[in-house]
Amino acid sequence: MHLWPVLYFYSGVKDFTAEDSGIFVRYDELAGMVKGDTGIEGLKLDFNAGVRVAVPAGDWQVRITDADSGQVFFDGQVSETVLISMEQYFIRWQIEVKKAGKLVFAHTYDAAGQTVCFVLEGDVLGDIIMLLPYIRAFVKKWKCRGVILDKPVFREILANYFPEFTVVEEFPEDAYATYHIGAFQTPPFLMPDDSRALPAAYIGQQLLGLQKAAEEVLYQPTKPRGVQEPYVCIAVQASGARKCWLHPQGWAEVVAYLKQLGYRVICIDRERVTHTDGMTIEMPAGAEDMSGAYTLMDRVNMLAYADFFIGLSSGLSWLAHAAGCPVVLIGGISLPYSEFDTPYRVQNRQVCHGCYNDLRVDWREDKCPYHKGTAREYECSKKITPQMVIGTIERFCKDMRGKQE
């Protein structure tokens, strides 16, 4: 793709892996050839897969630093080479180019008035909902044109709540910089720290070089209320059984309790039944089935009118929170800072819990890293009792009555 061989450089904090290399190549291929004109024939510069500098034949000396910390990432003689940083998150790069010992070009990152492209990585609903406000904050800070590479599942969300972004199907030819958006767990190239070590509000700040939490975006409903009776939404499934509530009678007892209170209980999982990690997770008896391939806006319009939502450490909890629906969050594997702040989190801290945030754990492989194959397997979830959840619901209802008085 490039005219000359690629030379990757990095801070040297840790060695890169074959998996890292595959990501760098994928990002670079998406961006295409280095696009930015420097005014010097053959010398090109952009920030579309980290910082990229295409250097033509000649006696060139290139120095690339962090303009804020002064750290030197690259300083050397190159010719007919494309320099690409392994660091892909926001750094205010500074580039100086000398020819035959004389400074002929210098540039410090400045996205003002430029097109900046954002790529929503993966299909993790909660991560994207969490990070979209940070894209808005970045665009506002730099006064740039924000472009998002099309991801069909989020089209309506972007159109309704982030109308200032341009959604494109092809990578923009005029892109000055590009950032890949996700809660990455393999530092230091996609982001400086493992996202599991950070409070949710800090992930977007690290990715995009921001200094404060972004303003939350309220997803207002776009349709009138459909269910006239009081109702509660629930979601019992997540990405893997380890995120689910595994108490054997848990959901059945909670659904029965809610119905005694006069609520309709509506299940909004995508699937009615899933089989994962050797377990069957299914909609509890007594709940009304609204599972299926509904759009995110369908879910927003359902959640926005619900009295509250009961869910897990999963994307639908983030969607409910964005829709202004109070969330009772049942969580065992993660610590509270991993999600949005809610006073109605249910967690049993007297048993093993929070392994998701242990950086020693390979989360992609270990299902229950501390107690797999023992009687304590998944105790973080199994030992959350129905009484704990019902008690939290009662506290929520009491709080709501207090606000109405």
Count of discrete structural domains: 3
Largest sheet: 6 strands, parallel
Known CATH architecture of the largest domain: 3-Layer(aba) Sandwich
Mean model confidence by pLDDT? 95
How far apart the termini lie comes to: 67 Å
Which CATH class of the largest domain?
Alpha Beta
Number of helices: 9
Structural class label: alpha/beta
Radius of gyration using CA atoms only: 24 Å
The CATH homologous superfamily of the largest domain is termed: Glycogen Phosphorylase B
Low-confidence stretches: none
Please trace the helix and strand order, writing H or E for each element: EHEEEEEEEEHEHEEHEHEEEEHEHEEHH
Spatial order of strands in the largest sheet: 17-14-13-18-19-20
Tell me the β content: 15-25%
Dominant shape:
elongated
Helicity, in percent?
10-25%
- CATH topology (fold) name of the largest domain: Rossmann fold
User: Number of DSSP strands?
Assistant: 20
Pfam family, one: Glyco_transf_9
GO molecular function: ADP-heptose-lipopolysaccharide heptosyltransferase activity
Protein name: Autotransporter strand-loop-strand O-heptosyltransferase
Keywords: Glycosyltransferase, Transferase
What would you note in describing this structure?
This protein is of the alpha/beta class and 405 residues long. The protein has 3 domains: 6-108, no CATH class; 116-208, no CATH class; 231-404, Rossmann fold. Helix content is 24%, strand content 23%. The protein is built from 9 helices and 20 strands. The chain has helices at 18-31, 125-142, 155-161, 200-208, 250-260, 296-303, 315-322, 379-382, 386-404, and strands at 6-9, 44-46, 52-55, 60-66, 72-78, 81-85, 93-99, 102-108, 115-120, 145-149, 166-168, 175-181, 231-234, 264-267, 273-276, 279-282, 288-289, 309-311, 327-330, 345-346. The protein has a 6-stranded parallel sheet, sandwiched between helices. The chain has a 4-stranded mixed sheet with strand order 1-6-3-2, with no helix packed on it. The protein has a 4-stranded antiparallel sheet with strand order 5-4-7-8, with no helix packed on it. It is elongated and about 80 Å long. Residues 39-100 form the Autotransproter heptosyltransferase TibC/BAHTCr-like N-terminal domain. It comes from Selenomonas caprae. InterPro entries: Aah/TibC-like, Glyco_trans_9, LPS_LOS_Heptosyltrfase, TibC/BAHTCr-like_N. One of its GO terms (cellular component) is cytosol. One of its GO terms (molecular function) is ADP-heptose-lipopolysaccharide heptosyltransferase activity.
